[in-house]
Amino acid sequence: MAGKSNKTILTVAVTGNLTTLQQHPGLPCTPEQIANASLESAKAGAAIAHIHVRYPDGRPSKELEHYREVVERIRDKNSDLIINLTTGLGGRFVPSKDDPKIAGPGTSIVHPLRRVEHIVALKPDIATLDLNTMWSGTAAVINTPDNVTIMANEIYKAGSKPELEVFDSGDIQLANVLLDQGVLKSPPLFQIVLGVRYGFVATPQTLIYAQSLLPKDAEWAAFGIGRWEYPMLTQAWCLGGHVRVGLEDNIYIEKGVLAPSNAALCEKAARIIGDLGGELATPKEARALLGLAS
User: What is residue 138's predicted lDDT score, i.e. its pLDDT?
Assistant: First the structure.
């Protein structure tokens, strides 16, 4: 982007909760593997590690002790790396086929306070806050304004900064209302998600539109799912945004070739940003950009 002065923050999303070991045998699953993947990605240019946790067999986890071990391992080796913990799990409703108003197998909805338990305990630098209510696979993801408010309050009490995850234009409108109400504090941090079915389509036109809806003082990033990871990384940079890669979002380093690691995806991102004339922010520089404690 002409006149772009701020450095670009690279986030690595190391494992997520949907990618499977069957899709990528090298997916980090244990706390040690997730922490090591975060640290290796930091050496490759990532300033932020976005973290979900898993059981060793690859199943998604909400266990506090899994989060605690990951955070402690990272902080023990790299106190500068910005830790971003998800609060996304616990919002999925699968309607029963016999009676759609009854929760069927696969429903994971829990009280919003349960979804932020690890944030309260571990006080990460950043905590994601999903604003989407949408259809996802076989489930409806539900994030009501009341539940988002409860979670936001706890995130702020923990001293963490919410990263507002938006999947469609209505999510941004909800964020703007919550900002007007004082539930969310300015300046906000947004993460625009592109390429999820029934959400924002991964095109330059869509990202331009989404970015135009954000508050003027917002810091923001965007990422694309699957093969759109690097095209959307490039588009986000051109619009002045920050970027994200990782095995949560995409498992391929190039068409048909599994990524060797999260660090390899970060190295490719760093190369693209450099070729465009940009420069990645260090964790310390990213903290200053986002107003996080040093």
Answer: 87
Residue 226 in contact with residue 257, Cβ under 8 Å? no
Handedness of CA 137, 64, 247, 258 (dihedral sign): negative
Through-space distance between the first and last CA atoms of the chain, rounded to whole angstroms: 28
Cβ atoms of 192 and 166 within 8 Å: the answer is yes
Using one digit for the tens of pLDDT, what is the confidence trace for 140-187? 999 999 999 999 999 999 999 999 999 999 999 999 999 999 999 999
**What pTM does this model have?**
0.95
Listed residue (75, 62, 63, 16) closest to 265, CA to CA: 16
The beta strands (E) that lie in 195-281 are given as 219-224, 242-245, 252-254, 257-258
**β partners of residue 83:** 49
- Residue 43 has which token pair? 């050496």
Q: Which CATH class is domain 10-290?
A: alpha beta
Give per-residue pLDDT as tens, 48-60. 999 999 999 999 9
